[in-house]
Amino acid sequence: MSTTPQRARSAEAKRSRERAILDAARTLGAARSVREVTLTDVAAAIGMHKSAMLRYFETREQIFLTLTAEGWQDWSAAVRATLHDLDPADPETVAATIADSLVTRPFFCDLLSQTSLHLERNVSLDAAHAFKKIVLAEVDTVVGELRRLLGLTELQAVDVVATATSMAGALWQMAAPGTQLRALYESHPELAHAVVDVGPQLTRILTALLTGMRATTD
User: Fold this and answer.
1) Which residues are within 8 A (CB) of 95 and not within 5 positions of it... i.e. 6 or more apart?
2) How many Å apart are CA 175 and CA 60, to the nearest integer?
């Protein structure tokens, strides 16, 4: 009897197969890095031929872009819940809350660093549009919470979210966690400036940004 996965016939079966693909890509991406995972790797992880996967996702990038959208939804819900309970809500506390919420999601940080450079550039316009709609909706919810807490303007709050997420992705790549490059930095004192501690550095950047914005608003 053949053990080759059969093509999903029903809508439910198709969703189940898509979920299996996404879960496999998430596991591989978290274990390595997003840029190192190929479509062949994902196909092998679920026992499917690479060409068969194209029935569910048009490219490798669409798989990871879908995971990025899910990451935005997860992060937005978590950071809003934490921000909602802050008392007091001063710039440093808000900055640390946002930074911590991102640092505890390393896979999301990795995806954030790849989104504009690679993931959005090898999908259809329809896929890119669907992704942007999800992200903008989540940004709006976080923006609303920041405005409520600190009295920021809408534009200021949007800039905070954009700065936090873009810097989290960039700093995560610079930190090079778990790589030989990181070991090199840590073993050579003259390279100490290259050792990035993402959480504290992102907190400092966001604190300065929020403090300046509040001063301008006041």
Assistant:
1) 202, 203, 204, 205, 206, 207, 209, 210
2) 25
- Rounded to whole angstroms, the Cα distance separating 48 from 216 reads 56
For 102-128, the pLDDT digits (tens) are: 999 999 999 999 999 899 999 999 999
Q: Which residue has the tokens 């992102």?
A: 202
What pLDDT score was predicted for residue 3? 47
CB atoms within 10 A of CB 140: 14
Residue 100 tokens, joined: 């911590």
Per the CB < 8 A criterion, the answer to whether 161 and 142 are in contact is: yes
25-57 pLDDT tens trace: 999 999 988 999 999 999 999 999 988 998 999
Instruction: Please state, in angstroms and as integers, the Cα–Cα distance from residue 81 to each residue in 33, 71, 74, 148, following that order.
Output: 28, 15, 11, 13
Token digits of residue 151? 């009295």
